Amino acid sequence: MESTQPTATDRALVAAGQRLTVKVPGTSANLGPGYDSLGLALSIYDTLTVETLSTGELEFELSGEGADTLPRDASHLVVRAIDLALDRLGFQRSGLRITADNVNPHGRGLGSSASAVVAAVTAANALVPAESQQNRDWILQLTSEMEGHPDNVAPAIFGGLALSWQDSEQYSSTHADVAPTVIPVVAVPDYELSTETARGLLPASVGHHAAAMNSGRAALLIHALTAQPEFLLPGTEDYLHQSYRAQAMRPSADLIAALRTAGHAAVVSGAGPTVMVLANGEGEAAAVVDFIEAFTSSNTPDVGWRVMTLAVDVQGARVEVHRR
Ligand SMILES: Nc1ncnc2c1ncn2[C@@H]1O[C@H](COP(=O)(O)OP(=O)(O)OP(=O)(O)O)[C@@H](O)[C@H]1O
Ligand SMILES: N[C@@H](CCO)C(=O)O
Fold it and tell me: Is 113 within the bounds of a domain?
């Protein structure tokens, strides 16, 4: 049977001499009970500039997070994602100059890998002729396939609070407006935990009671985030993942327990180990920062923490095309 797939030689070359920049927000997934489905875009941004070269070379200018550790060849996550996206679009590249300035810390639960693939696929889509470009739902599909779940990539693409779901291999997402008083405060520890390791700690199944409790809290959380933030503390209670992963991030788990006992809606951000508090108003956000500083200096003296009061990003990934 003849294949209808384009072969490498059928694919058109992406035009050389183009340059564009994608700015992409970091994200916090799960938000407590929204495991693999809820995610929030945060005002912490990575910037990726891609220039197409006529020679086949790959050039890298990396700064910020990962500059000392990331590969500078075709195995770089951004190049792999660009190549896959171009392949799906029926194109191939020649050379690329990649300039990445990464602010989002890696392996901490703020969706750095999702931001990287969203920036890369968004860039690839913008490099092909307008008639071949796809919409953001296509970007959601491809980047969810790459990540294995949609909860980080969806808010990175669309901004705001993303509610995502999966039907077989098809990923979908919609988004909701977060109440303006909600302020995310994050405490980023100086130790890493890979998503792969954290997923390996989860049980293959949970009981009916835990599933029922979790679905009630996930429903409450949407109402708390969008309309009644006074319910954020009960709404962020999780029964599916945080307790199983606590052993791999004990300082973060202890901080979350102390914050929740004090009445603050603290959760593990993504697969951890960053702690995020969804504060209701500037007064609570300031109190949370003071609480974290006091608690960590007394209880986790061996761990360095970076505490940031952020905002919800409502725009998602944006592209700037540099005209010549
Ligand atoms: N901007 C980037 N460019 C290239 N590779 C990246 C980039 N950001 C992350 N990565 C790769 O992804 C890894 C981190 O992915 P991982 O899924 O473990 O954590 P995370 O995405 O930061 O957190 P989480 O998924 O829990 O929110 C890094 O160690 C690095 O290999
Ligand atoms: N839902 C994912 C988010 C991190 O990528 C997890 O908790 O494993």
Answer: yes
